[in-house]
Amino acid sequence: MKNPPYPEHVIEDLRELMRKGPATLGHKELERIIAMLEVLSDRCGAAYQVVGQLAKHAGMFHDPAVVRALDVLARLLRQGEILPFDPKPATKSSERRGVMSKRIKKIKPRRFAAR
């Protein structure tokens, strides 16, 4: 399907079909649902990556609100809520620890020549 439908349109069409009585889905309706689910799954995967990178950059990757959001985005059908989303700002000391640990990992030990 070249242009996947917007979820709102699929939902409206399915609700209209249900209002008419017992519904049987045809090939066209199933294609639209599959296309919509593929798009939504891809977007949730991309959102997972973006949230993870932003949280890492902000020094808040292990914040419970961020972890909960990542869990919900990773397992779409698992029950859970992202909102309210209220992460605690990273403190300057925790940011420095993160930066220092990165610097320490990058520094290679120097070898001094014996005299």
Please give the alpha-carbon distance between the first and last residues: 74 Å
Structural class: mainly alpha
Alpha-carbon Rg, integer: 24 Å
Q: What does the average pLDDT come to?
A: 79
**Strand count, sense and closure of the main sheet?**
none
Fraction of helical residues: 55-70%
Unreliable segments (pLDDT under 50, ≥5 consecutive)? none
**Helix count, per DSSP?**
4
List the secondary-structure elements in sequence, H or E: HHHH
Count of spatially separate domains:
1
Quote the beta fraction.
Answer: under 5%
Count the strands?
Answer: 0
General shape? elongated
Give the SSE layout.
Blueprint: H1 7-19, H2 27-58, H3 64-74, H4 92-106
Helix pairs in contact: 2-3
Plain-language structure description:
The protein has one domain. Helix content is 62%, strand content 0%. The protein contains 4 helices and no strands. Helix 2 packs antiparallel against helix 3.
List keywords for this structure.
115 residues, mainly alpha, elongated
Provide a concise account of the structure shown.
This protein is mainly alpha-helical and 115 residues long.
